[in-house]
Write a structure and sequence with these properties.
Layout lengths: L1 H29 L6 E17 L2 E15 L8 H7 L11 H29 L7 E8 L3 H6 L7 H5 L6 E5 L2 E2 L3 H9 L6 E11 L2 E11 L9 E7 L10 H30 L18 H14 L3 H17 L7 H14 L5 H32 L7 H7 L1
Antiparallel strand pairs: 1-2, 3-4, 3-8, 4-5, 4-6, 6-7
Helix pairs in contact: 1-3, 1-8, 1-9, 3-7, 3-9, 3-10, 7-9
Length: 399
């Protein structure tokens, strides 16, 4: 089952990439740009020519997780190579900035549309993700480094008592908790006195998600602390689908907005970590926490093995993520082209062609270095079982 789901995940990733590139291609065609090549896969090594249609040669490359559309009139990195490879190319035209912006942003827009329709199918068939939240332990502040990230002193009480990261706190001394502040208030009132945590712990057994309810006795220190980081997270359940199609459109938009906002906030904290100004109390992102395609495929496949409904959530999330990443102002990405056009609009004239080409080449090299770095992290994660959720022991030790 896992193998079949891995194949499904790879197919879905390929579809998302093709949707992105199709967006560029169709808008470019409609606006009169030449699109001499549409490539399935990354242009490394030899390729197979699939045919020609609408003055576009369709190619298949063996490095399948990728894609591209050569649009030389957009001033992309393919311009010189295409001119050499296809000597019968028509003379290049100049296009207004708004047309170039439309083509450069079309891939991102198509990914967003794809994500929206995925959310729409989800809410119409399995329902919208439940808005009910759970108070979850997000970190154990046992080490100096972990405590420093939360502006706190190291505290091993929770770890020694047997609490784990991702434990859901249901109640404390038989009082239900709904917000992280409820936990803080109840624990702080019981300094040096036993407190009974009723928790729900999730683990994986035989490729099925299992839950168990445990009572854990914890004695807070003299300051009323036990050494945990807390968060309010989604329950992972789905509400019953509405019978009103108009509600589906609203729910799909709401879900997509919330997921997009969450990813943008996460991206902000990631860059904040890189430049050393992340807000106090927020988790730090380390270099070995950056992962790529192998990690995505591994976790995605396991998630839908446990609950096939997750295929909608993950497909939409990755499509949104693909849109966000492509909007980053890095030369060689769509955001880089848009940045050049923005500068052109401000200056009243284009940047020097050589400068743009050099910047795009540098951006491409940066992306390749990053790709190999996350590939190394992914391989190490596979070897150490970082992504493996097959057993209760591994699930708990990983956290």
């Amino acid at each position: 089952m896992v193998v079949l789901n891995i194949i499904l995940v790879l197919a879905l990733l390929s579809v998302m990439i093709i949707v992105h590139e199709f967006g560029h291609w169709i808008v470019a065609r409609k606006l009169g740009f030449q699109t001499p090549i549409f490539g399935f896969g990354l242009p490394f090594g030899n390729h197979i020519t699939l045919g020609k249609w609408k003055e576009t040669e369709f190619r298949f490359h063996w490095f399948v997780l990728g894609g591209y559309v050569a649009i030389p009139e957009l001033g992309d990195e393919s311009r010189d190579e295409i001119a050499k490879e296809l000597p019968d190319l028509k003379p290049l035209q100049s296009f207004a900035i708004w047309k170039r912006v439309a083509v450069a942003s079309a891939g991102v827009i198509f990914n967003i549309i794809f994500a929206y329709f995925t959310c729409l199918i989800m809410v119409a068939t399995v329902g919208a993700p439940s808005s009910k939240g759970n108070v979850m332990i997000t970190n154990l502040l046992a080490s100096t480094q972990e405590a420093k990230e939360y502006d706190s002193a190291p505290n091993i009480i929770a770890r020694e008592a047997g609490l784990r990261v991702k434990d859901v706190i249901l109640s404390i001394n038989e009082t239900n908790v709904k917000q992280p502040n409820d936990v803080v208030t109840l624990v702080s009132k019981s300094k040096l006195k036993p407190v009974i945590f009723k928790i729900q712990r999730t683990y994986i057994a035989n490729n099925k998600k299992q839950k168990e309810i445990l009572n854990v006795s914890v004695i807070p220190n003299s300051e009323g602390r036990i050494g945990v980081g807390l968060g309010l997270v989604s329950s992972g359940e789905y509400d019953k689908p509405s019978g009103n199609p108009f509600i589906w459109f609203y729910q799909a938009g709401k879900v997509m907005f919330e997921w997009t906002l969450s990813m943008l906030i996460g991206l902000f904290f990631m860059f904040a970590n890189v430049f050393g100004f992340s807000p106090t109390g927020t988790p730090k992102v380390k270099a070995d926490d950056l992962h790529g395609i192998i990690a995505i495929v591994s976790v995605f496949a396991q998630a839908i093995t446990l609950d096939f409904r997750e295929v909608y959530r993950w497909t939409a999330l990755i499509s949104i993520n693909l849109a966000i990443i492509n909007l980053l102002p890095i030369p060689a990405l769509d955001g880089g082209h848009l940045l050049f056009m923005f500068i052109e609009k401000l200056r009243g004239r284009k940047l020097a062609e050589k400068f743009q080409q050099k910047a795009i080449q540098a951006g491409f090299m940066l992306l390749m270095v990053l790709m190999f770095f996350v590939l190394f992290n992914d391989i190490r994660g596979l070897c150490t079982g970082k992504f493996d959720m097959n057993t209760k022991e591994k699930f708990e030790s990983k956290n």
